[in-house]
Design a protein that fits this description.
The protein has helices at about 30-45, 60-65, 85-95, 115, 135-140, 145-160, 165-180, 200-205, 235, 270-280, 300-305, 320, 340, 350-360, and strands at about 10-15, 55, 75, 100-110, 210, 215, 225-230, 245-255, 290-295, 380-390, 395-400. The chain starts with 9 loop residues before the first strand and ends with a strand. It contains 14 helices and 11 strands. It is an alpha/beta fold. The protein has a single domain (about 1-120, about 220-400), classed as 3-Layer(aba) Sandwich (Peroxisomal Thiolase, Chain A, domain 1), CATH 3.40.47.10. A hairpin with a 2-residue loop joins strand 5 and strand 6. The strands form 2 sheets. A 9-stranded mixed β-sheet has the order 3-2-4-7-1-8-11-10-9, with helices on both faces.
Length: about 400
């Protein structure tokens, strides 16, 4: 039964690579993986040799070989930015089944560096397949890239519910407020980035248009990032030097692959994946004290909040506009600055996991970095939702503090 999996494993560490954001020297995806893995091993005191399960978006065999490991469980699930939430779900099941005891969930993506290297070092196939159905049937309808896809979602939401791009713009403003409390964030301050520091709703409205009605500040960053988390059995969780964060619930779902097959541009499979996670946890939206939501675009976060039951349909943006999601608000969200202002390498789900762990383990105030006050919340429960593809796949976790 799904309920048997609740709290059958815990996340005991979460770390990032030594270089994230816009590194001065280009990095490969593998470098970002390995740096983060080394850091999480050091953080927890769990030696790399103890890892017996490896989970990544397509890199698992290469990671195992590079680390000199022969894992008992290998997962290469790669369905976009929610892959890492799904990896935690799969690791939870594998640990509960007794197949493994220490699962490594890892990610490295050089979204920024690959510009300088002309796509080298990504570990991915390059180029577009002209025979792919998306190339043949989607592009003629104006859905030829992420911004144009999400523009369709925004305009449909505006039409159906009477919302406006400005309503969603408040998500960017509040998320930037969190970024100014996080020295790791790309947009932490004007000293660290000329475009950094606080922004206003007028800044969002008047920014350069990317794909109508989405301006630049409605869109995520493109950066480098490496991250790793360790998921372990309860016995090991009680023996390490770090605090465990328990996996109370998990779920995953998919509504479509090609966006033209999306039944409703204002609804995603997060409704189904979160329902499964809540059911496993024996909890509901009313029990959540914090949320980490994929924010590739402002509209992604706003719609996801509705799908998770955190706000009524058509009113997700109000969590940000009314200040509830902001620093000092009653329901903090994306406390690291999100994909909009902290970091977004292409698949953002790992960054969600790292921040959720830091918050629930009480180590988010400085994350071992600066000691800047204001970022640590008092939340004891968190819903984490990753989104993959064009609002296509979702992975949801309910995490609780020890």
């Amino acid at each position: 039964m799904p309920g048997e999996l609740s709290r059958a494993a815990a996340i005991v560490g979460a770390a990032e690579a030594d270089w994230i954001g816009y590194p001065e020297q280009p990095k490969t995806a593998l470098q970002l993986h390995i740096s983060a893995i080394k850091n999480v091993s050091k953080q927890t005191g769990i030696p790399i040799s103890a890892i017996d399960g490896i989970f990544s978006a397509g890199f698992s065999s290469a990671i195992a070989e590079h680390l000199g490991l022969h894992p008992a469980y290998i997962d290469t699930t790669s369905v976009g930015g929610c892959s890492f939430e799904m990896h935690v779900h799969h690791a939870l099941a594998a640990i509960h089944a007794g197949i493994i005891n220490v699962a490594l969930v890892t990610h490295g993506e050089n979204g920024w560096s690959s510009r300088a290297t002309r796509g080298a070092g990504t570990g991915r196939a390059r180029g577009m397949d002209p025979w792919d159905p998306g190339s043949q049937f989607s592009n003629p309808y104006g859905v030829s890239g992420a911004p144009s896809n999400y523009s369709h979602a925004m305009t449909r939401h505006n039409h159906r519910y009477g919302t406006t791009p400005e309503d969603f713009g408040h998500i960017a403003v509040v998320t930037r407020q969190w970024a100014t409390l996080n020295p790791r964030a790309v947009m932490f301050s004007k000293e660290t980035n000329p475009a950094g520091g606080p922004i206003t709703i007028d800044d969002v409205n008047n920014a350069r248009l990317v794909s109508w009605p989405l301006t630049l500040l409605h869109c995520c960053l493109v950066t480098d990032h490496g991250g790793a988390v360790l998921v372990v059995s309860p016995e090991i969780a009680r023996s390490v030097k770090t605090k465990p964060v328990w996996i109370a619930g998990a779920g995953e779902s998919m509504s479509h692959s090609n966006m033209l097959e999306m039944g409703d541009f204002t609804a995603t499979s997060a409704a189904a994946s979160s329902a499964a996670a809540y059911r496993m946890a024996g909890m509901g939206p009313e029990d959540m004290e914090m949320a980490m939501l994929y924010d590739s675009f402002t509209v992604t976060a706003g719609i996801t909040a509705e799908m998770l039951g955190l706000a009524p349909r058509g009113e997700g943006f109000r969590l940000w506009k009314d200040g509830h999601a902001a620093p000092g608000g009653k329901f903090p969200m994306n406390t690291n600055g999100g994909g909009l202002s902290f970091n977004h390498s292409g698949m953002y789900g790992m960054q969600l996991l790292v921040e959720a762990y830091r918050q629930l383990s009480g180590t988010a105030e400085d994350g071992g970095f600066s000691g800047l006050p204001g970022k640590q919340t008092k939340a004891r429960s968190c819903i984490v939702n990753g989104t993959g593809g064009s609002l296509s796949t979702t992975g949801t976790l309910v995490l609780v503090a020890d």
